[in-house]
Amino acid sequence: MSPVLQEDDEKDENIPKMLCQMDNHLACVNCVRWSNSGMYLASGGDDKLIMVWKRATYIGPSTVFGSSGKLANVEQWRCVSILRSHSGDVMDVAWSPHDAWLASCSVDNTVVIWNAVKFPEILATLRGHSGLVKGLTWDPVGKYIASQADDRSLKVWRTLDWQLETSITKPFDECGGTTHVLRLSWSPDGHYLVSAHAMNNSGPTAQIIEREGWKTNMDFVGHRKAVTVVKFNPKIFKKKQKNGSSTKPSCPYCCCAVGSKDRSLSVWLTCLKRPLVVIHELFDKSIMDISWTLNGLGILVCSMDGSVAFLDFSQDELGDPLSEEEKSRIHQSTYGKSLAIMTEAQLSTAVIENPEMLKYQRRQQQQQLDQKGATATARETASASSVTGVVNGESLEDIRKNLLKKQVETRTADGRRRITPLCIAQLDTGYSFIHEALCDLVWKGLPFSFHQLASS
């Protein structure tokens, strides 16, 4: 980010702006999201796939495919998981608090919840929308996930049983036409859920939905065309104390950015009735996505015209951000201990009065026992053979058999065999030579074994 923030660094040829370009997707990429830990990046595209990326530390620099060796990848990011379930374009992906789950939504009208601890396991497929699902957001305490679709509805789902909590339609009744995306957002204090593409008195708005009773009495107004994306700042703020002013504590508030088809961006504070700032005609085309920096003082906005804008705010403009501890205290005082935010260690020592939480704890303990049993069995099996290659719980021999079953073979008019090559995700075993050899052998349709590869 330094060449984006500092002009001197931008002019310095030794400081790279582009760190890595990943070309694995087979069609347009619609959404990219960092995990909360920053370890993973999830991307979803028109190829119906979600790819999960992780930085590889043991591979040297490489050049970008098709750049004739001019562009170098300074960092190496490899695809560690490809998630296949959707039957249409993937429009949005979202990590849950503490990265326990990853959600994806698609033009196939569904939302899929993936177990982020055990990819590619699917925990639930949420069906209920009758139109293309174009946006997702998690409640910051992990109790709900919300989705918005072209069927003029916003649905809130419970994470306890993955069932529908409520469906909100009234603010969208007047909506005509569609937007490419419907990126909604939940406030970091959990009190407000803000939708894209709502209408009030024939004017475009971003609808504010209160968590308490799912009331829809407020909205952000002022954009001339449909709102495409809403994004809350990850920080909760308090008013900046001026020198000599009273030290009485101010009420905490949130900050929200709204982007629209009218090519403009507005930034709002929940303690003000009017926007903090409106930037008109920031781009040549509609705004597609918004992302705040982790410190809450910077914002990146991208557009369908292919450009990305960076805006910098000061603490004088936004306020003083609360620490993560203060934010956590607000969550605990408002909602009690969160199901998603509890670690395994906390769960085992917490006093649980809620019967649903008790059931959850018992299920977790049973799963741990099952996993221990499975691990012990796996160890016995592993000791029986001296060399076994296992990737994501599958032996390379099984992978080979499955690949050969799936490969498509056709005959040309002159009788020649033509085998359609398969896209194989790079196997994250540290042995990149095995991956290359596997690709080579599958391409040629030759038989092979892991032992042959290891010895060669």
TrEMBL record:
Low complexity bias spans: 365-386
Biological processes annotated in GO: chromatin remodeling; DNA-templated transcription
Domain of life, per lineage: Eukaryota
Keywords: Chromatin regulator, Nucleus, Repeat, WD repeat
Cellular component GO terms held in the UniProt record: chromatin; HIR complex; nucleus
Location of the region described as Disordered in the Swiss-Prot/TrEMBL record: 365-387
Residue intervals of the CAF1B/HIR1 beta-propeller domain: 10-318
Bilayer-spanning residue ranges: none
Localization terms from the record: Nucleus
Pfam families in the record: Beta-prop_CAF1B_HIR1 (PF24105)
Single GO term (MF): nucleosome binding
WD repeat positions: 22-54, 83-115, 126-157
Annotated family: Belongs to the WD repeat HIR1 family.
Stated name of the protein: Histone cell cycle regulator
Species whose genome carries this gene: Chinchilla lanigera
Gene assigned in the entry: HIRA
